[in-house]
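Run: sequence + magnesium ion -> complex structure.
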Amino acid sequence: MSKKNLLLLPGDGIGPEIMNEVKKLISFLNTKKNLDLVINEELVGGASYDKNKTPLTDDVLYKAQDSDAVLLGAVGGPQYDKLDFAKRPERALLRLRKELRLFANLRPAICFSELVSASSLKPEIVSDLDIMIVRELTGGIYFGEPRGIEPIQNGERKGINTHVYTTKEIVRVTKVAFDLAKKRNKKVTSAEKSNVMEAGLLWKEEVQKFYDENKQYKDIELSHMLADNCAMQLVRNPKQFDVIVTDNLFGDMLSDEAAMLTGSLGMLPSASLSEKDKNGRIRSMYEPCHGSAPDIAGKGIANPLAMILSFAMALKYSLNFDEVSDEIDKAVRAVLKDGLRTPDIMEDGKKKVSTSDMGSAIIDKLN
Ligand code: IPM
Ligand code: MG
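>> structure
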């Protein structure tokens, strides 16, 4: 079986602990399932800043560009809050996204039926919820120019960011959404603010044009929704959605909202993918949706499942191990069914376990 190179970037806070569980899983898969996954581990975020005075060194960026997939734990912590923008841990993420051209961010929001009572919504609204948010990740207001903070008169200042999208940027992420919907429940909802923003109107028009011109997607139902309405519909009746495609900023917000519907941010993985380059290679990065949770770091109580599910997504979308990926998904459901819970998803009558117990339980299921 061909070698695959994985770059592990555990990062800050609970990142190293949850990545440890993926490392255990990788060595199990290499020995017991004959996978040939070669891992390389590097610093990112605050951990990189502490050593190198930058959240992402060029060397690590090149390694990321050279690997078959990047797995990232989490970045950030209160000790870095006062640093300049360019030195903050989050910059590492944004630079990796931009330099690896990871324009398509897939954020599934799945409500595992075993965890339905962890949601703040009524069980019937969220049970078996399965939504995929496709967030544009390298454009829009996150990266638009001009940007900055400038002095104006009277000692006042002005902050500037630019929300900008081109046809190409909209079309390529739209295609990702339609291709996913084809394999799912055949519905795409595009969310924008075409009522107030020109870039939103362009977004809507280009999504519609893509749909009209590509007949292979005619079995898919397309609807357009204003992003504020979409936020409301997500809590009113989330099961009306299948795939939601949206820009970078709305995607950031809507995906947090969707994640919380499931009641367990500690359960949700994500994938970020590039286009094919000249040699047919797609670059990719996988990370949990949750943050670095500095308050519980180092205690061995973090939930490793989002990290493990992110690794499962890497097996499916980048490494061509669909079957192993499905087995991991099943193992996660099985341990939840057995009643194992890290503290973040703990309920009466269930068995509280540590980060490493949870990781080991997944491996036991695969054995
Ligand atoms: C996310 C995060 C990031 C973002 C931050 C950490 C830069 O909120 O991945 O959703 O805003 O994109
Ligand atoms: Mg976010």
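>> summary
The chain has two domains: 1-110+269-367, 130-261. The first helix runs from residue 15 to 32.
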